Amino acid sequence: MGLKAGDTYSYPPRGLCREAAARYLGIPAELFDDLVRSGQLPEPRLLSGAAVWDRHHLDAAFEAFPTAGSSRSQVSASLVHETADQPHPNVYTPETLAKRWRCSANHVRNMIKRGNLPAFRSGGRLLRIRTADVITHEAGEPR
Description:
Low-confidence stretches: 72-88
CATH architecture of the largest domain: Orthogonal Bundle
Shape: globular
Distance between the termini: 30 Å
Pfam families: HTH_17
Largest sheet: 3 strands, antiparallel
Radius of gyration: 17 Å
Oligomer: single chain
Domain Helix-turn-helix: 91-134
CATH class of the largest domain: Mainly Alpha
Helix content: 40-55%
Number of helices: 7
Protein name: Helix-turn-helix domain-containing protein
Number of strands: 6
CATH topology of the largest domain: Arc Repressor Mutant, subunit A
């Protein structure tokens, strides 16, 4: 699904077919299928009956995988690096997510307390929400 010599597009496609999505992640199509079935990768969208994977959803899911030699908890802790004005793109605080959703940070915290939105604590105290969980919630997909 790469650009052909006659293509005039200068940007990557947003939607990817199964083979292109697997190639985008650098894995065999069979492994891609297994990860989708297990819920570790997102389900496709259906465009006129064609299964198409959103590149942004694939990026978010990919970021949730641990790095070689890291445990899941080490990855979570490493994703929490923030500066005062720009949060790390892989996690949200209740405040930054509230800005995205145009609601209050307390509303986000209440969603977490009710179990409607997954979150984790950094340093045992600070609430963080993974981008992959935000995308899943926004898409209305069950966890």
